[in-house]
């Protein structure tokens, strides 16, 4: 009798433990959804294929490819989204770069956090292993793109950061990778002290570009981000400046 009671007691404990875990996981999921930034209508429109760019959903994200070009402009571009930002929010940038002739990949991160998808780039590189690639990202995405580059620098030619930086775990100082750092002068989200200190993790010949009037959120297209400053330029203008900086930088790669 006592054995049966103990068994029932443990069954109840296990049942309530499982139920508690389910409730916690569900709560976290609901919370993350409530604070995740979604693409604007402009970004959703940029996700549609047309006569210039083919957009395809693939295993670990999205691929943007130019139409009507005999040869893809090198290098291919891999992009890691910012933390709690849906990947489609970066489609205007991906489309612009595809229109310049590049093949562009945007990674789709688990619960929209690059910390859980650092190696997403593997499947993109596997599509064209003999071609050149650069990797980069926005905010948290840039930091984990850098961590990927640190561990796989032989597969890449460079790393670019949009309102982001390389922490110690993603130091690329002692690699042969080319580095591009782009920031907005009115960014209210970026920790500027950490950004300044992180220069110790970059090579001396890093290229730095500051977009006058640009803020944090306009490196993507998902609206105003909490804690950010109002930009002094339009989203379109900031995107234009990013594209110019990327093209100038990639044009100098070996």
How would you describe this structure to a colleague?
With 254 residues, the protein is of the alpha/beta class. The chain has two domains: 1-35; 40-250, Alpha/Beta hydrolase fold, catalytic domain (Rossmann fold, 3-Layer(aba) Sandwich). 35% of the residues lie in helices and 17% in strands. It contains seven helices and eight strands; from the N terminus they run H-H-E-E-E-H-E-H-E-H-E-E-H-E-H. Helix 3 (91-99) crosses helix 7.
Keywords for this entry:
254 residues; Rossmann fold; 2 domains; 7 helices
Low-pLDDT windows of residues? none
Distance between the termini: 79 Å
Tell me the β content. Answer: 15-25%
Number of strands: 8
Mean pLDDT: 92
CATH C-level of the largest domain:
Alpha Beta
The computed structural class is alpha/beta
Helix content: 25-40%
Q: What's the arrangement of strands in the largest beta sheet?
A: 1-2-4-3-5-6-7-8
Shape: globular
């Amino acid at each position: 009798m006592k054995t049966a009671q103990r068994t029932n007691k443990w069954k109840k404990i296990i049942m309530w433990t499982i139920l508690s875990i389910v409730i916690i996981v569900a709560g976290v999921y609901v919370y993350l959804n409530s604070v995740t930034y979604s693409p604007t209508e402009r970004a959703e429109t940029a996700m549609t294929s047309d006569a210039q760019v083919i957009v395809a959903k693939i295993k670990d994200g999205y691929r943007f490819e130019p139409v009507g070009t005999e040869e893809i402009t090198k290098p291919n571009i891999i992009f890691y989204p910012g933390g709690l930002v849906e990947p489609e929010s970066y489609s205007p940038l991906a489309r612009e770069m595809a229109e310049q002739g590049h093949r562009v990949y945007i990674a789709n991160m688990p619960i929209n956090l690059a910390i859980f998808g650092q190696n997403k780039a593997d499947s993109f590189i596997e599509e064209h292993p003999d071609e050149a690639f650069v990797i980069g990202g926005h905010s948290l995405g840039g930091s984990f793109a850098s961590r990927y580059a640190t561990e796989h620098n032989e597969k890449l030619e460079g790393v670019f950061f949009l309102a982001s930086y390389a922490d110690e775990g993603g130091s690329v100082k002692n690699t042969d990778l080319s580095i591009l750092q782009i920031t907005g002068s009115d960014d209210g989200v970026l920790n500027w002290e950490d950004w300044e200190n992180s220069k110790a993790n970059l090579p001396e010949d890093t290229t730095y570009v500051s977009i006058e009037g640009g803020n944090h959120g306009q490196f993507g297209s998902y609206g105003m981000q909490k804690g950010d400053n109002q930009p002094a330029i339009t989203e379109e203008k900031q995107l234009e400046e990013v594209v110019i900086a990327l093209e100038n930088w990639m044009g100098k790669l070996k």
